Every structure is written in C-alpha cells, then in structure tokens.
Amino acid sequence: MLALALARPLLRARDLSQQALPTIVLSRLVASGKLERLARGVYALPGRAMSQHRSLAEVALRVPKGVVCLLSALRVHGIGTHAPFEVWLGIGHHAPIPRLDQPKIRSVRMSGAAFTGGIDRLDVDGVQVPVFNAAKTVADCFKYRNKIGLDVALEALRDGWTQKKFTMDEVWHYASIDRVSNVMRPYLESLTT
C-alpha cells in the first residue's frame, strides 16, 4: 500500500479496492503516522510536497463529473489577478450539488455543449483534473457575469488576449455556444481595432 502511495501523490480509498487491498489498512496507516488523511477518502504521504493546485486535485477526486471553471480556471491559466478562496466547479444540470467541507466549492450549473465543450485535462499531483480551456473560460465569465462581475470578465478578456492564451475565433466559438456572442461583440471589436 505504501508503494501505491509513493506512485500516486493523492490516494483514494477506491484505488485500494481496485488493487484488491483492504481499506482498513488506511486507518491503521493514518493512526501510525505513515499516511495523512487530507479529506474524506483522500490520503497522501505525510510531508510530501504538493503543487499549488492541490485543492483542484482533491475536488477532482471527490467530484469526478465536475469541471473546474470561472475564477479557478482563470487562476490555472494565469489570467487576471483574482485568487479565489473556493474552487469554482461546473456541474451538470441535473447533478446533485457537491457538499464538501474542505476545500470549499462554488458550483455552477451547465448543460449541453456549454458543459462538455472546451475541456482540457491538467495533471495535478498525479490526478487528471478537467479544466475548461482559456477561451471557454473567458466566454463563461461573460455568461456568468452576474455571479462574478463584469469587471472580472473584461479583465479576463483583456489579459488573456494580451498573453495570447486564445484567438478571437476560439473565443467567438465558445461565446456562440454560451449564447453570449451579442454581449461580447463590442468588447471583442474594441480589442481588435
């Protein structure tokens, strides 16, 4: 079991079941100090260096059908100046709202192509974390401007464009999917003129 923990920076109880190992050993390893319980069902070796996006990996393990979005995705892509204190997570229209104590989650309901399009897989501490790409994230910021603020959306558009994180065609594609192309048109035109 410790060899498995060495191979994977974040370990789930489910991973042990897949390897035909008894999960009771997890409790014994935590009690002896050889393993650390980070959250419900998530374990790691004590003192192991973790990346700056470890909370995203924990959320991806505990909410496997969610996608990191909005302010958290902006942070992953290095766009803007906002550092969210909670993980923004896109969930399906009929999915139950995830309730986690740590890390805090702010969920946003999405459906159809707005939920399935533009997803990149980011490797964080050995966990594949689904994150919306930069162009999709900027379009989402305009779609959910009432939740995060128009100033955040405008900053994301300007900053992402100057850093060449996306092309206008990519942003326009996702703006059409999110049905905010009319809202974004004047801002996109101001950047290109």
The level 1 CATH classification of the largest domain is Alpha Beta
Helix content: 40-55%
Specify the structural class: alpha+beta
SSE string, helix = H, strand = E?
HEHHEEHEHEEHEEHHHHH
Q: What's the CATH topology name of the largest domain? A: Beta Polymerase, domain 2
User: Per the principal axes of the C-alpha atoms, what is the gross shape?
Assistant: elongated
CATH architecture of the largest domain: 2-Layer Sandwich
Strand order of the largest sheet: 1-3-2
The span between the termini is 59 Å
Q: How many strand elements?
A: 8
Low-confidence stretches: none
Number of helices: 11
Domain module tally: 2
Biggest pleated sheet: 3 strands, antiparallel
> Over the alpha carbons, how many angstroms does the gyration radius reach?
19 Å
Q: Mean pLDDT score, rounded?
A: 89
Strand content: 15-25%
Describe the protein's topology.
Layout: H1 2-7, E1 11-12, H2 13-18, H3 24-32, E2 36-39, E3 42-44, H4 54-62, E4 67-68, H5 70-77, E5 87-92, E6 105-110, H6 113-116, E7 119-124, E8 127-132, H7 134-143, H8 145-148, H9 150-162, H10 168-177, H11 181-192
Parallel strand pairs: 5-6
Antiparallel strand pairs: 1-3, 2-3, 4-5, 7-8
Structure explained in plain terms:
The protein is an alpha+beta fold and 193 residues long. The protein folds into two domains: 2-44, no CATH class; 54-192, 2-Layer Sandwich (Beta Polymerase, domain 2). It has eleven helices and eight strands. The strands form three sheets. It has a three-stranded antiparallel beta sheet, with helices on both faces. It has a three-stranded mixed beta sheet with strand order 4-5-6. Helix 7 packs antiparallel against helix 9 (150-162) and helix 7 (134-143) crosses helix 10 (168-177). The protein is elongated and about 65 Å long. The chain starts with a helix and ends with a helix.
